[in-house]
Structure formats: C-alpha cells, structure tokens
Amino acid sequence: MTAKSASWNRSRVATLTLLGGLLMLAAGPLLAEWSIARGSNVQGAATAAQAPRGTDWLYTLKAGEQLDTLVSELLKERYTGRQLMRHNQLTPDARLAQGDTLRIPLAWLKQQPDPARALAVSGNVGVVSASDGRQRPLSVNSLIRAGDEIVTRNGNATVELADGSVIRISPNSRLIFNKLTQYGKAGMVDIRLRLDHGGISTQVEPLLEGGARFEVETPSAVAAVRGTVFAMQSRPGMTALQVTEGTVTFGPHGQPQNIPAGYSASVDSASPGQVQIRRLPPAPQAESLPSSLQSLPAELRWADNGASRYQVDVFDTDSGEWLKSTTVSQTTYNLDYLDNGSYDIQVAALDARGIAGMPASQTVDIDLQARAAQLLSPETGTAIDDDMPEFSWQYRGNNEVARVEISGSKDFSNLIATSEWAPDSSALANKPLRPGQYYWRVVTEAGGNSVASSDARQFVINGTLPPVRILSVNYIDSQVRIFWQSVDTATGYLLQLAEGPEFRNIVKEASVDDTTAALRLIPGRRYFVRLKALSDGPLASRWGPGRELFIE
C-alpha cells in the first residue's frame, strides 16, 4: 500500500458515502437550522480566511541551506538575494543559520502549472482539453491540466492533485480545473475548481500557511478549505455541502461561514445571502467484519438509528475507485463479487432529503481461493450429434466465475473453443465444433487472480471429418514435397499415391502425423496423390481431391 493510500485510509474518506444520494435536494422542512450569525460562531470552527495579495510567506531555513540556493529554487528570476535580505531588513552580509525565518512575498515565488492525474475511471467519463476544446475519453493516469474539464455521464472518476489531495467526481457532473499552480519548491499550491453541476467529494491535504489556497466554486456558492474531508453538489440555483472532517468556509460569494465536521450547509437562490446549516445524521453502529475474508458473500450489519434508508459504498483502498453505491431500507448488506484486494466499506444513514450522514467505515481485505469445479455433463466418452453441446458443472467454492475450455489435446495446449466468463453453472462453446474427438474442462476464478482447473473429460462430435485439401507441391530433382491443410480434430493423415486418377492401382499408402510429406518418383511417369484425415473417434472420413504429380 502506498503512502498516499495509507493517508487516505487514516482519514477514512468519510464524506465519500455522501456521493450516491447527494443530488436529491428536495424541498422540505429544515431541521436544526442555524442562522448565518450562529454559523460563524460554531464552537471549534477554525478561521480559514484567504491571505490577501501582498502577503508574505514565512520560510524557515533548513540545515545547510544557503541564500543563493534558496533564491534559485524559490524565487522568480528577476528577484535577488540582496532584495530578499533588504525585504527582511537585513544587511546583505548578514549570516543566516538553520532555524532562521525569512519573509518572502508571494508575488516573488516561482509559479508553475501542476497537473492532476486520474487515479481511477469507471463508466463513461470524458475530459475536455483547454488547448483545443476537444473531448476525449478519460483513462487511468491521464493528466488533467489547468483549464481542462472532466465530464461524467453514467461514470465516475477519482483524481489526485499534485499536493496529494484526492477528488471523486460523481456521475452526471462537470468539474472545471480553473487553476492548478504550485509555488516552486515551497510546497504551497493554489488550486481553484468550479463545479458547474453534479457532485464531488474530496480529501484535501493540509495547506501551508500563507498564500496556499484550495477553493471549489459553484454558480451560487464558494467553499475554501485548509485540509479537510467534504462533499459538494451543485444544481441550478442550489449548492449543498457536507463536512465529515475539519472545517470548510462556505457560503455565497463574499458571505462565507465556517461549517464544522458533522454538519451540512446549503445555499439557495430563492433565499439570497442565507446559509442553511443542519446537523448530519450520526454514523450507524456497524458490526465489525473480519479484517480478512476468505469467502463471499459476507453480511454487513449495523444497528437501526431511526433512518428509513441507508447508503452503502465500497471503495478500492489503493486506487480510490468508487466501486459500488447501494441504497437499502434494511440494516444489512451482502458483500459479493469483489476481486482480491483491500476495500473501504462505508455505511451512512440518509435523511429525508436523501443526504448521507456521517459514515461508519471499516477496511476489509478480500483473499478468495478458487476451487476446482465438479463436472456434470457430458460424461467421458460421450458421442454427441449436436455441434453446439451444452456443458454443465457444479461449483465447489463461493463467489466464483467460470468458463469452459475445449481442446483437441488432453494437455490443452491448443484451445479450440471456450465460453464466456460468467457465474453460471452451464455454458455453450463460442463457436460450433467440427466432427472429431475433444477434451473439455472448467476453469474457475475467484478474487480476480486465483484460478483452478477441473479434470479433463473426452467427448466426440459425430459426423464426417472434412476432406483434406492439398495446398502446394514443390519439385526438387526426382523428389516431390507436398503440403496440405490441417484439420483441427485430426490425429493424423492417410496418404495414398496411385498411378491413375481413379486410385485403383495404389503405389504407396502411409500414415503421416505432420501436414507435409516427401515422395521420390520415377521421372517420366504420372502419379496422383490424395489424403484423408484420421481420428481416434468413431468418425467417417472422406478423401480430399487428388493432385497430379509428374517429373520429366
């Protein structure tokens, strides 16, 4: 597990359960509402005012750090060490040591674009490039640059910013990356996003003091954060916020309020200048699952806290991908059909508006082992008239998928046909089978990376083997080499050499394992050659057309 994913787990990404039903902002009575004034005086709320233009950044010198290297790494080219010393009211020859603090104007710091990266993408998600305005499919590891837009339809995406902050974009959303800037090696960022519509949930890394900035704007509100976990949704005339860790400064433009963890807030154009604040539903008390599961399905249970509905979300711990979101009315949920790996499982109560509350969260490792299936039909040695027979089996493990494999050899070195991977216990081959002898088996898979194969069974498709067609004849002195087309289910070939096209007078007859043979002929005589496929099964064989041979 990477340091990034470990950090993601420590904070539990609590808001992410808010994604599934968050766009349901139906009108209704407001419970535990706060006034704007009270919202700005919430106990424990931290002030998150942005630094004004001209603010200095305080930099503490590290061991062995010199003024010239500091200037080259942090400052724009037009600023010098002498100017920096003068700004700090120090003489040019003043000695600096580890632990000394310098004031550096933000305007002097190097600024460089710092693209974001797509960690996970599911479903239909596009990115609109700011450089040419074209929309392309978003894929894992795609870079997102300032001005680009991510548009989700029936899909979702997880994006990591350069400072380690992570954003999940819910379906039917449009997020514009207005600014993605890093201040040289200072570690500070200026990130400004615009959520045109839809929903996002975020885990923002703690920002350094000074000019660091992380803002999410919607058509009706703005949220500024300094390191927190929150979710936002935007629709025409309405913006909603839910905070599950830290504090978010949120409200109409120019009228922000501090919203602490455990509360939601909304801005509605029908009530301009007002921020409606209410407490989020508490986290349900969930029974702990085993830290490692060797079989699925597994039942997740939690205590009823009075909610009529609950939302269960499943996330991939390493990539952050949002895998499942399900709304249930009961207090149980079955986890099934998950690949081996680590998952963050979250359950939250939904309020009357469909807003998810504080989540109960736990991490579970899935470690499934596939078991060999028990074959049912056809039995060994069965002769079948149908060229598309049905194969059936019985699973011995849980939460498995399987496919049928059909080969002309017992070691399955040459697969002739297969079925699709599916959880079913019967299947047809993906193409008709020619007459001949075959072997079949079932391969089961559990957890995406554990595979087991059943024993093999032999069967025969009745019918007539196709005639063998000679492809080419090469003459070298008095010798002739013949090449013919392979027949999939043939175990060998019978070659006949005759002095007439009726093949009454057979000069030579031989069995050949390969698809080529060499013959030595008497010059000046005419010969004819033909072949037919051989099989171990009770199959009739037909001769292929004869070919004349002649050496002058």
TrEMBL record:
<protein>
    <submittedName>
        <fullName>FecR domain-containing protein</fullName>
    </submittedName>
</protein>
<dbReference type="Pfam" id="PF04773">
    <property type="entry name" value="FecR"/>
</dbReference>
<dbReference type="InterPro" id="IPR013783">
    <property type="entry name" value="Ig-like_fold"/>
</dbReference>
<dbReference type="InterPro" id="IPR036116">
    <property type="entry name" value="FN3_sf"/>
</dbReference>
<feature type="domain" description="FecR protein">
    <location>
        <begin position="148"/>
        <end position="248"/>
    </location>
</feature>
<dbReference type="InterPro" id="IPR006860">
    <property type="entry name" value="FecR"/>
</dbReference>
